[in-house]
Amino acid sequence: MTESTAKKPSRIQLRNRKRIMDAALDVFSQHGYRGATLDQIADAAGMSKPNLIYYFDGKEAIHVALLNALMEKWLAPLAEMGPEGEPLEEMLGYIRRKMEMSRAYPRESRLFANEILQGAPRMRPHLESRLKPLFDEKSALVRGWMDQGRLARSDPAQLILTIWAITQHYADFDAQVRVLVPGEAEGWTAANAHVEAMFRNLLTPKDTGS
């Protein structure tokens, strides 16, 4: 049986697919695509390898299914940033959502990072057809706010990339952060306060009237 089937999957089949994908997320986020094996995924899912292959054709099919699901989640915070809000609060709200994603979805962030580090062989179509248009749209929105003097001037595209670099660091380098800044709750409170203060200072228009 392959991923596609004419029959509607049963509740047990849906549950087992979710079980496999959750186990695969652990394995891929730890070992990357190249280091992960079907045996590792089957062990993590608590099922036999033949049973796993009943639901997915192979390792790549599982990885692609995870990336497809991840892209929806990954685009949502940026898509929510809209022209109707106050620019500084729209930007800070986006940054808060990105920080929350790093806190809540570290495995997904590492899965994405590992795919990009390998040259995005399975995700490139998504990057080109979905992320790039959204990135260009939001860069243009930010540029418009800057042209209106409602945000401090900078390069909008580089600004968004910098937001990604800083916020996703807390997920992708989670093990290092936990050693350097012990105390998970206190660490996240301090991280959120620091990142927001830094971007608020960067984005707030400077008074040039005197």
Can you walk through the features of this model?
By secondary structure, the chain is mainly alpha-helical. It folds into 2 domains: 46 residues, Arc Repressor Mutant, subunit A; 138 residues, Tetracycline Repressor, domain 2 (Orthogonal Bundle), CATH 1.10.357.10. Helices cover 76% and strands 0% of the residues. It has 10 helices and no strands. Helix 1 packs across helix 6. The protein is elongated. It starts with 10 loop residues before the first helix and ends in a 7-residue tail after the last helix.
Short description:
With 210 residues, this protein is mostly helical.
User: Could you say which structural class the secondary elements and strand pairing correspond to?
Assistant: mainly alpha
CATH class call of the largest domain: Mainly Alpha
What is the ordering of alpha helices and beta strands?
HHHHHHHHHH
Number of helical segments? 10
Query: Would you identify the regions where 5 or more consecutive residues have pLDDT less than 50?
Result: 1-5
Radius of gyration: 20 Å
In total, the number of strands is 0
Largest sheet: none
What's the overall average pLDDT, rounded?
A: 91
Strand residue percentage: under 5%
Gap between N and C termini = 72 Å
The coarse silhouette is elongated
> How many structural domains can be distinguished in the coordinates?
2
